[in-house]
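Why do we care about 3D structure at all? Because function follows from shape, and shape follows, mostly, from sequence. That is the central idea of this module. The next example makes it concrete: a single protein chain, its amino acid sequence, and then its structure expressed as tokens.
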Amino acid sequence: MTETPLRLVVLIGSHREGRFAPTVSRWFLGQLEQYADFDVEVIDAAEAGLNAEGPSPTASLPILEAVGALAARMEAADAFVVVTPEYNHSYPASLKSLIDWHRTQWQAKPIGFVSYGGMSGGLRAVEHLRQVFAELHAVTVRDTVSFHLAWERFDEHGEARDPEGHARAAKTMLDQLAWWATTLRTARIERPYVTQSTEV
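And the structure:
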């Protein structure tokens, strides 16, 4: 256990009406209750106020206010876990909007994934997100938690049908995330991370 709890932001990426995200997210947050290393905060893309809009200098005041409020919470994070479904072999527009509106908040921080979907378990969305976060100078951990045919993996009470198997997967991912979060937090303090934008 670290001396100071790691500030972990759980990002819920889905925004569709009738989404399955609450079931998966509740399960994962229940797993986090066993980890004193983490001080957990949740950001839900469906409630973030960005409406899946991308960055724009002409964005409305409500959008800019939402971005500012999120930025402070994300800046304080030591690590992130993204809970994402797979939409058309990739990730939701609302999640991409939340990512794109922020830049320095991701840098030199680790990111884990909890994905869900059909046969692929959302892993195609995760692989696309790895490329996005690499561009933002974030570090994605190797192991993930994925629910294949997700609606069959939970009972009517939202409990996982294979609690031990999925709990092991969560522990593996969270152990990696804690190691990277601790290491990178120390590195950011001792040698602040600086990048030069290559955008034109």
